[in-house]
């Protein structure tokens, strides 16, 4: 008996349940992250090999040669032909992702490549989309140029009423760059009323923080560049498909279209992705806890304000607003949609609105541990003066992506940076 399965086997009913039949229960996320690809082992080496080949030998036995048009994709797990279709390292990566995300998963060259493939496959006339990562809006604009695809505003009820059967409600949660969450159960009800698909960009809350399939989402998308990669060294995108949709042909359809779009993940990225997913739970839980401690500390300093200690003074003087899902009103009600949606903690990204754009521009260079760089999800903490990479964002905004360092060190770094900025402003 081998553990784990391909996305196709999962779509056909195997998957975490197959493991459950051996252990009498589903294995934990941590164990699945280490073992869901064990079935692909062909060598005694414990660490997975890296295959760089783009092409694969056909069988030497002519009786085993099957023309492409006669291959049953569900029975072709072992058949490798050309790496634009699939390759051993991305197969491993996808086996882990399928088990971790709870639905058959495909990998792509980047998060935007995954988003593009999803929209091409579902081929809506309209997409309702809210704030969030500007690149996804850019992809929709490109498609508008090709086929007139219309972008509607997710949070405008009038716009939602324009949606028709086969259109998409696309929800990013938590949102980039604020880290605030949106209610998936609400949008599932809307999608059902309107006959639309519900797709989610869950990049900011990977497992174990959030499981969008619990809310009936049709396709879960991730920029795997962030927490799945986790070390700021690989670009990747992921689509996980609701098991019912996958079994109804969506997995085969997306796989077939990916072969033509050519936006597969590379061999190195597949290998790095496996290396990284082994520690997903450890990293994400630590990052989430670190972020929560920093948000709690900043919020308490802000509340204490000028009547508090010297540090409270500095935070209150410079930080106008802190944004994070843990600060949304619903976060303090255990029965709320937010607590149901994020039962294991909040995301590791939050944002700070400083008093002015000039403050936001100057703070990053005062920090010693936080790197000033875009992106998020890696083990190293980052801040970004978001105006550096987003043309439409409030110029006072600093996005904070919390890494795995000791949280007290991160707190002290933020404090010394804010103090240095405060001192500079008073000169
Ligand atoms: C929420 C979100 N979705 C999608 C993307 C795009 O991912 P990628 O950069 O891997 O294409 C990003 C990138 O920052 C993101 O933050």
Q: Would you kindly provide a written description of the structure presented here, covering whatever features stand out?
A:
Helix content is 40%, strand content 13%. Helix 8 (184-194) links the parallel strand 4 (168-172) and strand 5 (197-201). The protein has helices spanning 7-11, 16-23, 29-35, 88-101, 111-122, 134-147, 157-160, 184-194, 243-261, 267-277, 280-304, 310-318, 337-341, 357-362, 407-426, and strands spanning 105-108, 126-129, 150-153, 168-172, 197-201, 219-223, 237-241, 319-323, 349-354, 371-372, 382-385, 397-401. It contains 15 helices and 12 strands. The chain is globular and about 85 Å long. The chain folds into 2 domains: 50-92 and 101-277, Aspartate Aminotransferase, domain 2, CATH 3.40.640; 280-426, Aspartate Aminotransferase, domain 1 (Alpha-Beta Complex). Bound molecules: pyridoxal-5'-phosphate (PLP). Pyridoxal-5'-phosphate (PLP) binds next to helix 5. This is Pyridoxal phosphate-dependent transferase.
């Amino acid at each position: 008996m081998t553990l784990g399965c391909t996305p196709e086997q999962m779509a056909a009913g195997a998957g975490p349940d197959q493991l459950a039949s051996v252990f009498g229960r589903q294995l934990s996320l941590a164990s699945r992250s280490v073992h869901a690809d064990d079935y692909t082992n062909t060598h005694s080496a414990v660490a997975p090999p890296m295959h760089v080949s783009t092409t694969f030998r056909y069988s030497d036995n002519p009786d085993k040669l099957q023309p492409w048009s006669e291959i049953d994709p569900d029975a072709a797990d072992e058949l490798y032909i050309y790496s634009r279709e699939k390759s051993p390292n991305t197969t491993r990566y996808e086996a882990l992702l399928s088990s971790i995300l709870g639905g058959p998963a495909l990998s792509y060259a980047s998060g935007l490549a995954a988003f593009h493939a999803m929209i091409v496959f579902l081929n809506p006339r309209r997409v309702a989309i809210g704030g969030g990562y500007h690149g996804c809006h850019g992809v929709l604009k490109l498609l508008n140029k090709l086929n007139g695809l219309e972008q509607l505003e997710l949070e405008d009820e009038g716009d939602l009423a324009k949606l028709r059967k086969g259109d998409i409600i696309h929800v990013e949660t938590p949102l980039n760059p604020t880290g605030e969450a949106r209610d998936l159960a609400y949008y599932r009800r809307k999608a059902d009323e309107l006959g639309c698909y519900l797709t989610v960009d869950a990049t900011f809350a990977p497992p174990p923080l959030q499981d969008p399939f619990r809310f009936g989402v049709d396709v879960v998308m991730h920029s795997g560049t962030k927490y799945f990669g986790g070390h700021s060294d690989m670009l990747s995108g992921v689509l996980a498909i609701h098991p019912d949709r996958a079994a109804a042909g969506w997995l085969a359809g997306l796989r077939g279209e990916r072969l033509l779009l050519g936006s597969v993940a590379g061999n190195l990225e597949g290998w790095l992705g496996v290396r990284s997913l082994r520690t997903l739970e450890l990293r994400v839980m630590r990052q989430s806890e670190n972020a929560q401690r920093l948000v709690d500390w900043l919020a308490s300093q802000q509340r204490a304000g000028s009547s508090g200690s010297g540090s409270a003074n500095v935070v209150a003087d410079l930080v106008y607003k802190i944004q994070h899902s843990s600060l949304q009103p619903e976060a303090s009600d255990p029965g709320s949609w937010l607590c149901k949606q994020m039962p294991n903690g909040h995301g590791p990204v939050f944002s700070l609105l400083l008093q002015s754009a000039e403050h936001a521009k100057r703070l990053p260079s005062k920090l010693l541990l936080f790197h000033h760089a875009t992106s998020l999800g890696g083990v190293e903490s980052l801040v970004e003066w978001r105006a550096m990479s987003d043309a439409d964002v409030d110029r006072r905004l600093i996005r904070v992506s919390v890494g795995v360092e000791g949280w007290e060190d991160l707190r002290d770094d933020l404090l010394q940076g804010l103090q240095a900025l405060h001192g500079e402003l008073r000169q």
